[in-house]
Amino acid sequence: MNRLVLFDLDHTLLAGDSDVEWPRFLIRRGLLDAEETNRRNDAFYEQYKAGTLDMNEFLAFQLAPLARFTMEELHALHADYMQEHILPLITDKARQLVVGHQAQGDLVVIITATNRFVTAPIAAELGVSHLIATEPEIVDGRYTGKPTGIPSFQAGKITRLELWLADRKQRWSDFGETWFYSDSRNDLPLLERVTHPVAVNPDSLLKAVAEEQGWPIVHTY
User: Cross-referenced Gene3D superfamilies, in alphabetical order (predicted)?
Assistant: First the structure.
């Protein structure tokens, strides 16, 4: 049986949030103002948890620092960010979930609202070659600080997934089973679309929905 298995990233395969950790890393390096960045970062994170995040406003904040650096500088910074902030957040349980599906021959994809610059090396570390993420704009070999295309956020994850499948000349109906692992109420549109929704370290609303619907609830940390 062909199975499509989708994983959210933050608080699902990571015991934390890569979108939150990136500006924290830049603050530690003295590259962002701590007080202002922490204030806005915390406010956006509370909005995300409440399901009220304005994605366009958030992306303007989150992507702006990328425009300040060359690609070479960013890759060097990201390598340190991985070591200092991300590797400690990858649990054995999360790795085992991914490997377990891969061992069964499933098509495994990470689908995340976090931008590709931050998440591509994390997906590679997890051994997942397929990533659907929010795309930062690149012009003349540099990030502009703006997004491009449809953010893979809330119902946008369904749109982005269907576009990705179409590029592969595939459809939902090609898969006997579709799975999605996520922690967040923001992912309810896609969780309700798949045949096997799984709540992972769920927030309060997702936990309530999962219990009502009889969805499995698992914890990776």
Answer: HAD superfamily/HAD-like (3.40.50.1000), SG protein - dephosphorylation function (1.20.1440.100)
208, two tokens: 């309530």
At residue 117, the pLDDT reads 98
pLDDT digits (tens, 9 = 90+) for 25-65: 999 999 999 999 989 988 988 888 888 888 889 998 999 99
pTM of the entire structure? Answer: 0.95
Q: Rounded distance, CA 106 to CA 98, Å?
A: 10
Q: Is 10 among the catalytic positions? A: yes
Q: Find the catalytic residue in 8, 17, 183, 187.
A: 8
CATH of the domain at 194: 3.40.50.1000
Q: How far apart are CA 81 and CA 217, in angstroms?
A: 30
Structural domain total, the chain: 1
Q: Which residues constitute the domain of residue 139?
A: 3-218
| Nearest-angstrom CA–CA distance, 122 and 127 | 9
42 given a catalytic annotation: no
CA gap 109, 111 in Å, rounded: 6
What three-state secondary structure class fits 151?
coil
